[in-house]
What we know:
The chain is an alpha/beta fold and 426 residues long. It is 59% helix and 9% strand. It has helices at 7-16, 57-73, 91-99, 109-120, 127-139, 151-185, 192-195, 197-206, 210-214, 218-225, 232-246, 255-287, 292-296, 303-313, 322-328, 355-371, 373-383, 392-414, 420-425; strands at residues 23-29, 34-41, 46-54, 78-83, 103-106, 144-145, 333-334, 348-349. The strands form two sheets. Strands 3-2-1-4-5-6 form a six-stranded mixed β-sheet, with helices on both faces. The chain has a two-stranded antiparallel sheet with strand order 7-8. It is globular, with a radius of gyration of 28 Å.
Amino acid sequence: MLCNQNLKDWRLIGYYIRGSNNHLIVGIDIAKEKHYAFIGSANGATLCKQLIFQNNREGFDLLTSRVEVLRLKHQCKHVVFGLEPTANYHKPLAEHLIRQGLQLVQVSGNSVKQNRELLDNRWDKHDRKDAANVADLIAQGKCQFYDYPPESIRDLRELLSLKKRLKKEEHGLKTRIRNNLLALYFPEMDQYINTCQRDSLSVISNCCSPVLIAGMEYETFYDTVVCTRKSKKQEEHLYQIWQSAKKSIGCNAGVAALYEGKALIKQLQEARTALQELDKVILALCSGIEEYPYLLSVPGIGPDTASKILAYVSDPNRFDHAKQVIKLAGFDLSASRSGKPSAKATPVISKKGQAELRFALCQAALVASTSNSLFSTWFARKLQGREREKGIYAIVRVKLAAKMLVIAWTLMKKKEMFAYEHLNNN
């Protein structure tokens, strides 16, 4: 019925689909329980205005059988399914279509929103119109490749998504401890959260009340908080906390404060334990991917950054040139030049790509430019004569991050370890 899901087929769509009599287009609006499909031809004819099918195997079979009947009836050679990715609801249908060997594309949410009003000069939104909207965009060739990587890369993406949620949960718990608990009962201890974090959390868990701490002898307080031998600096911090408790301006802490402190610390420790275990799973998964050692050979790129490069770049051969890889991370330059001389339009990075990959690469660039002689020399050379320009250090660091992404992509593609020549050639 259709070609296999691959990049070459998708690239041909933009050239041949507009006004074609050989292409049947299926636009699908994704929902949780049921989906809406619009079936039409690339030349604008409506073949099925609305097909509602359930999000289960029977519904998927209904869709494919109905499409096949219409394809034979109207003698179309090719069928293109298209959808707008919605949370995780689209993934079972997408995987089913790809496994059936069907051509699947996706449209961006931004283009769907902008094209909606062009259909009938109205901004109203409903499922049937959205399905027709998706089909209309595909008929214009305004669609994107639906990336369906190998199972290992899909697993890696899911694990990184879980890690992001756990990190967000950890940050939220730390914020609640500082802003809700310490600010109310023991404001003076907030300054020790970062410098003496483990001991501070132990204090909060065992005796959050400054009145309770002030009523203890220092040796008793030390034995209550510390489980193992501490360094001299840590002991100084604990002594300062004990002294601060005597002059604390915090509110009287009762049973609620003590219970909340124990509960929040327990949740924070569980989140951190989960993150440590998750990092081990991600490392084991990445170690089984062929390109992983090549990425680790680049100075500044550690396991976390390497895992994100693997997840988002996936197959390096799906990019023909470096500009496409840079665009993936949102490092491509954009500027508003309408009605302005080009000299006055200052380009900035678009930030339209993968934000997590971009942030990880900027962190890697910071490490490489300060700890590796090759990268620090390159960084200094780019700064030469421009040291007084506003924000120039951040600009050059972003350039280095983009360069490191291109180097990583090149190593993945050529299956090579990093060498000095890669820094000068890319």
